[in-house]
Amino acid sequence: MEAVIAVVALLFVLFVVLGAYATVKVVGAAKRRVDETITHARRTVEDGTLRAKSFAQPGAAGELAQLRLKLRTSMRATQDALHAGVTEDESLEESLGLFQRLSAHGHELDAEMRRLESEPDRATLAKRLPDLRERTERVVQSADALRWAARDRARRFAADDLDSLSEQIDLEAGALRHWQTTESSSSSSSPSSSSTPPSEGPAATPPPWPEAPATEAAGTAEQTWPDTPQSQRAEEPTRPAISPAAPRPTYPWQKKPRPESTT
Fold first, then answer.
1. Alpha carbon distance 117, 108 (integer Å)
2. Domain coordinates in residue numbering, the chain
3. Treating both helix axes as pointing N-terminal to C-terminal, what angle do 122-176 and 92-117 enclose, rounded to 10 degrees?
4. Phi/psi zone of residue 213: left (φ > 0), alpha (ψ -120 to 50 degrees), beta?
5. Taking the model in full, what pTM does it have?
6. pLDDT by 10-residue block (mean), the chain, 263 residues
C-alpha cells in the first residue's frame, strides 16, 4: 500500500513539473510573439514616419529621412535573407557574422541620424549631410552585396540540383522506353548489312530447284490442295439429266371415277 502511494505521489509530482515546464514554454512563446508584434508595429510606424518626412520636409531634413529609410530597408532585407538561408546552408554562418559586425555600424549611423533630426541648426546639418550620405552608401552597398551573394548562391544550388534531377529523369525515361533503343540499334545495323557491295568474283551458281512431286500413278505423293470443281465433274459418272417418273401409288381412300351416263 505504501508503494502504491509513493508511485501516485511521484506521478503527481511529475505531472506538476511537466505542467509547469509546458506553462513556461507557452508563456515564453507568447511573450516572444508579443515582442515581435510590438517590434514590427514600431518599425512600421517609424518607416511610415520617415517616408512622410522625406516627402513633406524639404532640404537637409527630408534628405536625412530618406537616408535613414534607405539604410533601414537594406539592412532589414539582408538580415531576413541571411537568417532564412543559414538554416539550409551552413556556409552562410560566416556571412551572418560579417553582417552582425556591419549591423553595429548601421545601428550607430541610424542613431546618429535620428539625433540630427531634432537639430535646430540647419546649417550644421547641411554640413554633416555629405559625410552621412557617404557612410550610408557604404553600409548599404556592403549589405546589398551580402544579400545578393546569398541569393545567387541559393539560386546556383537550386540550378545544380535541377540539372542533376533532369539528368536522372532522362536516364529513367530512357530506361522505361527500352524498346526504342532496341529498334534504333536494329535499324542502324540492317542498312549497313544491306548496303555491303557484292564481291567482284565469279557469280555463284544458283541452287537447283526442288524436284517436282510424283504423279498420281506412282501413288506415293500426298495431295495437299483440294480438287477443282471441273476435275470433280470429270471424275463423276455420266448421269441422265432427268430421272424417269415412277408410277404413283394408289391409296384405298381414293374413289374410282364413275363412268359417265350415255343416256
1. 15
2. 1-56, 58-178
3. 150
4. beta
5. 0.53
6. 79 83 81 74 74 76 88 92 85 88 93 86 85 93 92 85 88 83 66 50 51 47 47 52 54 52 46
